[in-house]
Amino acid sequence: MEIVIVADGAAVAARAAQIMAWAIRAVPQPVIGVATGSSPLGIYRELAAQVRAGELDVSNVTAFALDEYIGLAPSHPESYHHVIDETVTKQLGLDPARVHVPNGHISDILTSGDDYERAIVAAGGIDIQLLGIGANGHIGFNEPASSFASRTRMKTLAPQTREDNARFFGSIEEVPVHCITQGLGTILDAGQLLLVAQGESKADAVAAMIEGPVASMCPASALQLHRFATVVIDEAAASKL
Ligand code: GLP
């Protein structure tokens, strides 16, 4: 695992965007994995600026999101369909037909995980997967005790995750209880992993991911098993290393 510690959130975004742009330029048909949450937003802004400046061609990019809430309509402002559409697809000018988000419709849930796995394989696999980290060490919505071999499937959100994400909703009661997420096995299949974190609230999770044991109680510790994982964090997130 390569650990890059920079001064602040702006520097995290700049460095991570540079790594994403390298990966996009490296192959003719790039497949990127994108994440929601606040951590990657600066990266998307940086990449969009490169696209506008004519420095980055994203016309052949295919994207796969990590996860989705179950039970929110795709048009709901907090559904990850909507969030990815606003923060990634529109901002970078990606072809919407090439942007995939797991199907969180409850009536499809028995098949939507396998369908998503097949779509990733059909696209040729993910070249670079961008990740944030939850305060409890989750990646995607793989909460503590997720299997390292898991594939895209339905999960129950941890109470802490629902509390953390309540800020995006009117109240905690409005935060869905279930989600669909790429599994840790799915994430580990990507050619490169790029995890970003900023702020002191992530310091414990970052320390457990990097210096703790490889253990399912810290799902992000799975990055220790990957041959090409890069972690870009600011000094506050690195403060417990
Ligand atoms: C969310 C997402 C994760 C994200 C994490 C951290 O629940 N499912 O993919 O990495 O929580 O979010 P933030 O970057 O806002 O701290």
Q: How would you summarize this macromolecular structure in one to three sentences?
A:
The chain is α/β, with parallel strands linked by helices.
What does it look like?
32% of the residues lie in helices and 17% in strands. The protein has 241 residues and is of the alpha/beta class. It has a single domain, classed as Rossmann fold, CATH 3.40.50.1360. Strands 1-10-9-6-2-3-5 form a seven-stranded parallel β-sheet, covered by helices on one side. The chain has a three-stranded antiparallel β-sheet with strand order 4-8-7, covered by helices on one side. Helix 7 (203-211) links the parallel strand 9 (192-197) and strand 10. The chain is globular. Bound molecules: 2-amino-2-deoxy-6-O-phosphono-alpha-D-glucopyranose. Residues 35-39, 66-67, 132-134, 140-141, 161, 165 line the site of 2-amino-2-deoxy-6-O-phosphono-alpha-D-glucopyranose (GLP).
What topology does this entry show?
Elements: E1 2-6, H1 9-26, E2 31-34, H2 41-52, E3 62-65, E4 67-69, H3 80-92, E5 99-100, H4 109-122, E6 128-131, E7 153-156, H5 159-165, E8 178-181, H6 184-188, E9 192-197, H7 203-211, E10 229-234
Parallel strand pairs: 1-10, 2-3, 2-6, 3-5, 6-9, 9-10
Antiparallel strand pairs: 4-8, 7-8
Helix pairs in contact: 1-2, 2-3
The protein binds 2-amino-2-deoxy-6-O-phosphono-alpha-D-glucopyranose.
2-amino-2-deoxy-6-O-phosphono-alpha-D-glucopyranose binds at residues 35-39, 66-67, 132-134, 140-141, 161, 165.
